[in-house]
Amino acid sequence: MTPAIRVLFVVFGLTAGVSSASAQPKKADRPKLTDAAIKSDDLLYKTTPQGELKLHVFYPPGWKATDRRPVIVFFFGGAWRNGSYLQFVPQSEYFASRGLVAISADYRIESKHKTTPDKAVEDARSAVRFVRANAAKLGIDPDKLIAGGGSAGGHLAACTALVDGFDAADDPKVSCKPNALVLYNPALNLTLLKDRAIPGADGQDIAKAISPTLYLSKLAPPAVIFFGTGDRMLAMGTEYVSKAKKLCVRAELYTAADQPHGFFNRSPWLEATTAETDRFLASLGYLTGDPTVKPKTDAKLKKE
C-alpha cells in the first residue's frame, strides 16, 4: 500500500483495513428498509483489463421496459480500495419500492483490481453513461438520473457531475453528468488532505484533478449532502455548500450530531438519511408522497 493511500485510510476513518462502516453490510445481515418484493438483475456494463464490472439493478413493482422512471445509481465507499455494491442494497431496494429504478454499481478498487483512484473515477463515469445510453431497456427517463454514494463513492458520484476527463472509450455523445446528486459523507476536495499525493495510474499526483469542489459551476446539479459532525471531512461538505450558494446552485447539507464517518450505514441514521433523501428527490419531482421509511426518534438530522 502506498503512503498516500495509507493516509487516505486514516482520513476516511479506516483502521486495520476495516471501514467504520464496519458498517458496510454483508449479504446475510444487511438491513431492510422495505418489505416490498423487489426484483433485481445484474448487467455487465464494462470489461476492463482487470475484470468485468456489473450494475446491480433493482426494479420497482410493476416495472416495464417501456416505462420512463427516474433512476438512481449508487457507488459504494471504501477509500477507493475496499468495499462492495452490497453497501447500497438497502437504499436501492427502498427507492425501488418507491418507484425508481435503483442501481448499485461495481467499480475497480485497489484491493481487488490493483488500481488507483483515477480508474474508479473512469468507471463511475462509464456506469452513468451506460445507464443513460440504455434508458429504453432499463425503462428510465435519461433526464431524471441521480448519482449517489458514500465516502469515496460519494466522491465518484460528484466526479460524474463535475470533473472532466478520466473517460474510457465510451461514446462521448452520451453525457455522464447526472441531474441530481445524493452524497453521504463524500470526499469533495482532496487537496485538503494532509498528504496531497493521490496517485494516478501514471504515478502522478491527481488530487486536484479529481476534486469536485474545485470544478463547481453554475451548471452543477442540485445536491443533498450528509455528514456527521464528528467526521473530520465535514469541512469538505461545508466548503462545497458555501461555494454552491455563491453560484446560486442548490446544495443542502444535513448533519448528525457527534456522528463519525460512515454513520449513514447504521440504524437509526440509515433510516433518517434515507427519509431525508426521499424528501429531497420528491422536491425535484422524482418521487411523490411521503417517505415510507420511518426514522427513529433518536436520530435527528440538522439542516445547516
Give the key terms.
304 residues, alpha/beta, Rossmann fold, 9 strands, 27% helix
Task: Give the SSE map.
Blueprint: H1 3-11, E1 39-48, E2 51-59, E3 69-75, H2 89-97, E4 101-105, H3 110-113, H4 117-133, H5 135-138, E5 140-150, H6 152-162, E6 180-184, E7 223-228, H7 234-246, E8 251-256, H8 269-283, E9 301-303
Parallel strand pairs: 3-4, 3-5, 5-6, 6-7, 7-8
Antiparallel strand pairs: 1-2, 2-4, 8-9
Short description:
With 304 residues, the chain is an alpha/beta fold.
Describe this structure in words.
The protein has 304 residues and is an alpha/beta fold. It has eight helices and nine strands. Strands 1-2-4-3-5-6-7-8-9 form a nine-stranded mixed sheet, sandwiched between helices. Helix 4 crosses helix 6 (152-162). It is globular, with a radius of gyration of 17 Å. The model is unreliable at 13-23 (pLDDT under 50).
Low-confidence stretches: 13-23
How far apart lie the N and C ends? 37 Å
State the share of residues found in helices, binned by percent: 25-40%
SSE series: HEEEHEHHHEHEEHEHE
